[in-house]
Amino acid sequence: MTYAESILLGALQGATEFLPVSSSGHLRLGEAALDIHFDSIVFDVALHLGTLVAVIVVYRHTIARLLRAPFQHSDQPFFSRPGTRAWGFLMLATVPTGLIAILLSKVLAPDLSIAVVGGLLLVNGGILLSSKLVERERAPDPYGHGEAPPPAAPPQDDFPADWGLTPAKAFLIGVVQGIAVLPGISRSGTTITTALFCGVRPKAAAEFSFLLSIPAILGAGLKTASDLEHFDQSEIVIIGLGVLTSVVVGVIALKLLIRLVSNARFHTFAWYCFALGAIALGLAR
After folding, report:
1. Which of 28, 215, 249, 260 lies at a CB distance of 3.0 to 4.6 Å from 265, suitable for a disulfide?
2. Distance, first Cα to last Cα, the chain
């Protein structure tokens, strides 16, 4: 892999990790198109860690409030506080994600064919298109369209909301995130669409989806971190360039997606997935 190819794949990862078009599917197709012979699993995970940094940058204030929440003084019972409930929902969704991802990783082939990835991209397009049904029925998002944000939470809570979730909804979102380990199925696309169907407000759905990605991405990174020791210095530099690119592009893409979700334009990515899936199927023949 050359430096230019690493930067290109890093930009591809940074954009597609947050835009609901399947980052793993794009990386698989990109590596096949460029005929790159590299340990794709380690490189893919390294790029995902770059996008993890992008999530932390964009949601740093919410993450800081989450970290402070358990230690804030409040007159409410501990398990009734918004911050405590938020932590509970994140943990409840993370459990099925991990179990399903581990199960699928054991039964899936290491490198799915382009035809399979293309078919899954078509499925992903259908999932995204279904979000239009929810967007039509939903009133304008109070967090979007340039309107003023809601009043701040009381000082003793120091956390704005629990995303309007219930334990069952959080668990379901975690299940679909685990299924999204399939290359061609978008993690952000499936989790945000599921949250919208569960009645979660658009911007809250995006926030929960990307905060939920933190333990998922971190877990995948830790699982393969030991493999990085086997690379020589030149390969580490190549990986570093890709990661840096994925961070910069990821921050831009994440902010763009938040705006699109808030303005009920999330479903428009379906047509891109349909087109790319059809192209992949055509090339596989």
Report:
1. 260
2. 26
